[in-house]
Amino acid sequence: MTSKALQSFLDENIADLKERGLYNEIDPVEGANGPVITINGKKLINLSSNNYLGLATDDRLKKVAKEVVDTHGVGAGAVRTINGTLDLHLELEKKLAEFKGTEAVISYQSGFNCNMAAISAVMDKHDAILSDELNHASIIDGCRLSKARIIRFNHSDMDDLRQKAKEAVESGNYNKIMVITDGVFSMDGDVADLPGIVKVAEEFDLITYVDDAHGSGVLGKGAGTVKHFGLQDKIDFQMGTLSKAIGVIGGYVAGKENLIDWLKVRSRPFLFSTAVTPADAAAATKAIELLMESTALNEKLWENGDYLKAGLKKLGFDIGDSETPITPCIIGEEKAAQEFSKKLIEAGVYAKSIVFPTVPRGTGRVRNMPTAAHTKAMLDDALAIYEKTGKEMGLI
Ligand SMILES: Cc1ncc(COP(=O)(O)O)c(C=O)c1O
């Protein structure tokens, strides 16, 4: 028997979300998630993925994934500490450490898991975490899990960060204090002021944690935001995902040997959840190798990003202050953003609306993510559709 309390909770809340334009419909993608996707039998130019370098459908990654299914099977079998760790996971971590320029790396099942794992392995209720107000949901949840006091600072505001760090230190209430930030903010495309954060961290002895889910593969010729600023020796935790630019699945934390050793004995998703499949580990390793061999994909990504941004700006859209290929078209009201996205999709561009709670209320937007796999012709088609639909809706 279903609980009446549960039913009324679900009915009321789902109806409320629909009424307020906050209910997200999930579209079924038929086939691969490439630069052009098929939804309900219709081909659409895909500007909604995080597959920045087009590696999710790359033949070289597919080849190694197929090969290791034959040599290693389809599953990792057990948690790594219980049944021994596969050579493929160790190779992945070794390659990632080389790529990131750190002593060691630990890999997890997802980027989200990294933040659940790493923050609470180090921080506890006697500590405080200074967290940028626009940090990703997984950072927020990871901080909450740690039970540390969470102190939000204004987005990328170094004066506010410094003031709050000073107050936290002077209060004498905390054993340790961490500052945590996205490297690239995924909904706006702006880059964290890591040099500013490091300066405050050095002044107040803060632990530094950068979630580089959207910076890896994109900034620093692919090696990420920390490398972009040349701060590899100054950031304690470099967290990244293997699901976006790397094109596969999984996440990792890069840092000093003793930090990674600690995470291997104390972080719960590592200790109590099975690692990614052999095919995932091998494909991700291959992707890292490709990025270390050549910057061609990274350069193509930036070329396409700059092209789309210039085109949308010229048409008169508000594309915010993005410093990366992430290109929001900020509409404002949630329902209008959803309506615009719907019309774009009908016309042939898969660009999804992003609304509260992913972004602050009243800043509803359509988020565009050109990738290295898009051709100029695809981007031109997308711009033509943006122009026509934007004019029809009176947005430009
Ligand atoms: C900043 C940030 N951190 C972490 C994650 C989670 O990564 P994953 O999809 O690998 O779980 C995301 C994904 O959206 C993200 O944008």
UniProtKB/TrEMBL annotation:
UniProt-listed CDD domains: KBL_like
PROSITE patterns tied to this protein: AA_TRANSFER_CLASS_2
SUPFAM superfamilies documented for this protein: PLP-dependent transferases
UniProt-recorded Gene Ontology molecular function terms: ligase activity; pyridoxal phosphate binding; transferase activity
Source organism superkingdom: Bacteria
Domain Aminotransferase class I/classII large span(s) in chain numbering: 43-383
Cofactor(s) it depends on: pyridoxal 5'-phosphate
Annotated family: Belongs to the class-II pyridoxal-phosphate-dependent aminotransferase family.
NCBIfam families: gly_Cac_T_rel, PRK06939.1
Protein name: 2-amino-3-ketobutyrate CoA ligase
